[in-house]
Amino acid sequence: MNAGILRTGGARASLVADIEARLLSKRTLGLGALTLLTGCDISDNDQVQKVLTTVSRWNDRAQALLFDPRRLAPTFDESRAVRDFRYNAYFGPDDAPKLDPDTYRLRLSGLIADKKPWTVADLYALPQQAQVTRHVCVEGWSMIGKWTGTPLSVFLQRIGADTTAKYLGYECADGYYDSIDMPTALHPQTIMAFKLSDQVLPAKYGYPFKIRIPTKLGFKQPKWVTTLYVTNRPTGGFWVDRGYNWFSGS
Amino acid sequence: MSKVTGYQHHPLILRVTHWINAAAMIVMIGSGWRIYNWHPALPVDFIFPPVVSLGGDPVLSQPIHTEDGLASALMWHFGAMWVLVANLLVYLGYGIFSGHFRRDFLPLSPRAFLRDFMDAARGRLAHRLGEYNAVQRVFYWGVLAAMAVTILSGLGIWKPVQFQALTALFGGYEAARVVHFLGMTAIVAFLAVHLALALLVPQTIKAMITGHAGTKEVQS
After folding, report:
1. Domain tally, chain A
2. Across the interface, which of B51, B73, B159 has its CB nearest the CB of A38?
3. What's the rounded Cα separation, in Å, for the pair A129 and A194?
4. pLDDT in tens, A139-195
5. pLDDT value at position B2?
């Protein structure tokens, strides 16, 4: 069972349309500046893209070597946590998926022993811990927040996941998909975050949970997660397929 | 500028590392400007004109990559950084062990710098090929220091968890971004002066390409 099988083509197409609409509106703002462009940049050359992508794959391996599974991300005093956390998605907060706690089920697939779907109540009954850590976005902004939830390693043990496998993949209600390396999934600060700023995670921040990973860039941390799967096959990722580095560790 | 005298010889390793560094620097600066534009580190209303930044045509990037130009900039930046650092280490090794730094960039004193600086300001500082005056020496040490600061703060931004001691050294993640920007600014300022002076004394460009310029006979 893999990412592509569970994703419907229709959802994907409308998603891309959404993104294009968003970018189009953003682009009109800078149209004056853009008319100056010659429309020629070597980055868009296919051969150049191939070389850049090859180097990016190499950077995945270099970062995996640099990653120390025991090194903790710096934590901060609670007073430094932002209360009004930045909303970030390729659609407006009003269009964020609103998952129904009564019908929501977290689906599990791949190299997992117990694939019984999880309800919100089951998830929220798991042991929880809080962390005040810095969220770093690939775009450059950062923000300190307080997240509370269950270490993903605890959950993976609970469901009998094969933690010797290479990847943990995920899919989300908005069509988002990606994967992380298993050592990062097992890192003590990687949590299924059920709360932000002591409040049950609001819909726009990923209800019923987001995976908070202080050792990775923000786009690797999914919201509105509907499927988790364990696999040894490399997966694509929404932004990775658009050229972002897959490992993207901090 | 007075008459150019002297003789300049640049060994092959110095010329190769110089031009690799030049190419890697251009890529790092161009892609860095594109990355900066996405979320400026400085609290001022300024972005670099997209046309001078590197990362793909923002308009064409959408239909081609369904992404508007940050991904390519990041790939350029995190690809060229290996070239830049590896090349710099070769150059530093050469500079230290060949005596290039000791011979050409030293000695250096505030008094010599002031003297040469005043001469240069009055347009009386003659350029002797193969010999660096005190102002040039300060510039070369300065740009090496700026590169060190920019690279180290860059590592602090790239890996604020794995290299957290480095990030903390620059005052934390957000401060490290500002330091990284200021380091870049210093390098670009050096580049502007470096290019202007090279164009004023084109013999130096010839020396950096062919290895030789001027004549060995001492002229006066």
Report:
1. 1
2. B51
3. 10
4. 999 999 999 999 999 999 999 999 999 999 999 999 999 999 999 999 999 999 999
5. 47
Residues in A touching B49 (Cβ below 8 Å): 33, 36
Q: How confident is the model at residue A26 (pLDDT cuts 50, 70, 90)?
A: very low
Asked if the Cβ–Cβ distance from B76 to A73 is below 8 Å, we say no
- State the smallest CA–CA distance between residue A122 and chain B in angstroms: 32
Q: Which CATH number is A52's domain given?
A: 3.90.420.10
User: To which residue do tokens 């002591």 refer?
Assistant: A198
Query: Domain locations in chain B?
Result: 5-214
Chain-centroid distance, C-alpha A145: 16
Show the low-confidence residues of chain B (pLDDT under 70).
1-3, 217-220
Percent of chain B at pLDDT above 70? 97
Q: What is the span of the domain harbouring residue A134?
A: 43-242
Is this structure's pTM higher than 0.90?
no
**Does the residue A53 lie in any domain?**
yes
CA B153 to chain centre: 15
- Class of B5-214 per CATH? mainly alpha
At residue A40, the pLDDT reads: 53
Structural domain includes residue A233? yes
The distance in angstroms from the start CA to the end CA of chain A is 30
State how far the Cα of A169 lies from the Cα of A1, in Å rounded to an integer: 11
Mutation target for B interface from A43, A72, A133: give the one with most B CBs within 10 A: A43
